[in-house]
């Protein structure tokens, strides 16, 4: 299993949630309004100066769904650009 963290501009939430549905992912944890600064995305701080904010999803998935999910996220990155969505895949050794 893998843990996929998806960080994305809150403005594209509907598209990200549609991807989860298409891949068959029903279980996830979502942090709705997160802030931060990335090398390619710049500041997303939810302030007057830096107004964008992100959402973050944590998704525990089997390898076959992980592959489909990452492919769809790559397509979304091509559509919206690297500044609006990013995913990280980590090994998931145990779930209790």
Name some characteristics of this structure:
globular, alpha+beta, four-stranded antiparallel β-sheet, 6 strands, 2 helices
Biggest β-sheet strands, sense, barrel: 4 strands, antiparallel
Q: What is the CA-based Rg, rounded?
A: 13 Å
Got a strand count?
Answer: 6
Read across the widest sheet, the strand sequence of neighbours is 2-5-1-6
Beta-strand share of residues:
35-45%
Number of domains: 1
Residue share in helix: 25-40%
Report, as a whole number of angstroms, the end-to-end distance: 13 Å
Summarize the structure.
With 96 residues, this protein is of the alpha+beta class. Helix content is 30%, strand content 36%.
Describe the structure.
The chain has 96 residues and is α+β, with helices and mostly antiparallel strands. It has one domain (11-86). The protein has two helices and six strands. The chain has helices at residues 13-23, 63-80, and strands at 2-9, 29-34, 36-38, 42-44, 54-61, 85-91. The strands form two sheets. The chain has a four-stranded antiparallel sheet with strand order 2-5-1-6, with helices on one face. β3 and β4 (42-44) form a beta hairpin. The longest helix has 18 residues, at 63-80. The chain is globular and about 40 Å long. The protein starts with a strand and ends in a 5-residue tail after the last strand.
Architecture blueprint of SSEs:
Layout: E1 2-9, H1 13-23, E2 29-34, E3 36-38, E4 42-44, E5 54-61, H2 63-80, E6 85-91
Helix pairs in contact: 1-2
């Amino acid at each position: 299993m893998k843990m996929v963290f998806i960080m994305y501009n809150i403005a594209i939430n509907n598209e990200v949630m549609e991807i989860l549905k298409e891949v068959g992912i029903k279980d996830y944890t979502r942090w709705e309004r997160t802030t931060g600064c990335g090398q390619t995305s710049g500041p997303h701080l939810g302030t007057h100066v830096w107004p964008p904010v992100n959402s973050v999803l944590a998704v525990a998935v089997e390898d076959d769904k992980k592959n489909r999910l990452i492919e769809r996220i790559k397509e979304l990155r091509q559509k919206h650009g690297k500044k609006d969505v990013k995913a990280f895949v980590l090994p998931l050794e145990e779930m209790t």
